[in-house]
Structure formats: C-alpha cells, structure tokens
Amino acid sequence: MLSALKQTDVEQNSESKMTKPAKKKSKGIVSWPADERPRERLIARGPHALTDAELLAILLRIGIPGKSAIELGRDLLKRFGSIKSMMHAPLEAWQGIKGLGKAKVAQLHAALELGRRAALPDGRQKLTIKSTKQSADYFTARMRGLAEEHFRIAYLIIGSRSSEALSDIYHTDVIANWMLINFSLSINGFQVINGYSDLLTPFLGVAGGVAGATGWWSNLRMFSIDRFFPSVGGRLPLIRYLSKLLLNRITISEKEALSAFIPGISNELPHDQEYNPEPERSREVLQTWEALKSLNEELIDKNVSKGLEKSLLAISRAEQAYSEIAALGIVLDQKSRDEHILALLDGLREFMERAEL
To answer: pLDDT digits over 314-353, tens only?
Structure first.
C-alpha cells in the first residue's frame, strides 16, 4: 500500500511539472532587430549616431537578469552624472555596483583612459613652448581627467648666451614671464622647481615656485651652453658676498667698506663669520644658500599679493641703499652695481599686470 501511494505521488508530481507553462527566457539585446542593436548600429552609422548609454552597452557587452546592457549603461550615467564624471571617478566609486565585476570595471576604465589620452598632445612630437599660456595649456591638458591626486613637477631652466651674460636673465620680460610660468603651473597643481634661478629664486617663489637652484661655482649660477665646452683657463673669479639688502653679490673689500656706512649690508647670519677675513672658495656657496634661504623665508607668502608687496619693499630698500652708496662716492665693481634693480622692479610690475594681481 505504501509503495502504491509513493508511485501515485510521483505520477501526480510529474503531471504537474508537465502541465506547468515553461518560463520564457529573455535573449536580451541579441533578440532585438539588427538595426536597433548598438554594435550593428555603430558599424552601419558610425559611433556618433549612438547615445552614451549605447556606447557603454558595447563595452559592457551583456546586462544582468531583467536588465539589458543599455539599461545598465543608463544606470551608470544616472549614478555618475556623465561620461566626464566617470572619467574623474576613482576606482573605489565603482565598487559594489550590481552587474559590474572586476573585468567590466577594468574594460570601462581602459576605454575612459584611452579617451583621456587621445585628448593629450602627442608626446612623441617635439614641442617648443614659446609662451606662458602655451605652457599652462600643455600641462593642464595632462592633468585633466585624472581621477586621483597626482604629484607633478615642472623643472624650468632659462638659458643665457653665456654664464657671464647677466642682462639675459635680469631682463624685464624674462623675469615677468618666468614668474608667470611659475604662477600658471602652481595654480594648476604643479610643483615648480627652477633650475639656475640663483638670485631670482625668492621672487619666483613668491609667484608659486617651490624651489630654486644656484651652482656651487659662479659659472654655474646661470644656464649656458658654454659651460659644456672645455675650459680655456683664466683667472679664478673673485670670492663674493651675497647681501640681502642689495639683492646682489659684492666683493669682500666692498663689504668691509660699505658695512662701515650702511646698516644692513651684512646679513648677520651664521656663515658671515667665515668672511673674517675671507672664506675658502668652496665655502662661498654656503653663504649664498644661507642668504637665499633667508630671503625666501622673508618674502614668500601663501598669499601671492602679500608676497609681491614684500618683494617690492625689498627692491625699494635695495634701491635706497644703492642711492646712499652713490652719495658716498663709492665706486663698485661692475657686477656689484645696481643694473639688476630696475629689471627686477619692472619685471615684478609686468608680472602683476599679466597675472592680473
């Protein structure tokens, strides 16, 4: 009797399964008419004919149960807001999205990164930057679309005809443009290091530069191609002292003579002690670095306008000191004179006008 009941139950269950209508399985986009499928439409009409959701559907390839790839693409656009926002979104923002595994996320990010790189200037093409606007555009394009914070450094070098051609560097346009490049890059997230900037380092720092460099020897304080040629010999340059007041280097004899009449010629910093009477040639640069560091600390301000006010005041003090020297009838060495003051003053004013500060 028991076995008969079991047999009856099995037969009834089998009949119920056979009579239950089969669930229709969705074939997704593949079941659509050919002229409505994203991939076929792209091939027939070109990518411009497709919506953002349809382009995403091609990358996604398949959807999820109850939702086609196009619908999934629309969900992504709704979540992020736009394709551009997707490009900026970090990888963490893609985690936990239903229907997106690691493979699909990688495919989408690869496509978005290719789009970002396609908008960049060709890195293999030789490029000569001739204006501050061109430099800002060039570097900004490389930062655009990055999802996370990136550390970028620009190393700037301004060349001169020779290591003795001070007029090439201390020129109104050179100073103004060099400062403007620092300013443009810094506000676009770049850390700017200025090579061979020497005495201009504090003023470039005011404009946004984070560091500057000056050579160990006098012929390395400006960049010039002649320093790569064999030396022809000659007399060693005089050991000099960098006076913060004059914003210039003077000879040791000039330092001694001027200090007796004009307060502030000496910096009163630790390495001044080595100038009694004269430092070793290899120690001269330490006094230069110390003086430049002190000028950086005095002039550079987080507020660019305040830094410029301090810089103009420092130039004004230097101008006044040179006027006192002239009134005393003291004749300075050619390199110790005040030719750089006017260029500095005009350069800062020109920078302020161009940067609209």
So the answer is: 999 999 999 999 999 999 999 899 999 999 999 999 999 9
Tokens of 113: 């990164």
346 closest CA partner among 131, 133, 175:
175
CA distances to 9, 21, 165, 198, 344 from 219, rounded to whole Å, are: 104, 93, 11, 11, 21
In 12-48, which positions are buried (b, 16+ CB within 10 angstroms) versus exposed (e)? eeeeeeeeeeeeeeeeebeeeeeeebbeebbeeeeee
Residue 283 has which token pair?
A: 């120690």
Ranges of each domain in the chain: 29-118, 135-354
Cα dihedral 72/76/82/87 (nearest 10): -120
Question: pLDDT digits over 36-49, tens only?
Answer: 888 888 888 888 88
pTM exceeds 0.70, yes or no: no
Q: Under the phi-then-psi rule, with left for phi > 0, alpha for psi from -120 to 50, and beta for the rest, what region is 65?
A: beta
- Give the tokens for residue 54: 């349809």
How many C-beta atoms lie closer than 10 Å to residue 64's C-beta? Answer: 15
Q: Which residues are CB-contacts of 242 (< 8 A; sequence separation ≥ 6)?
A: 199, 248, 249, 267, 287, 288, 291, 292
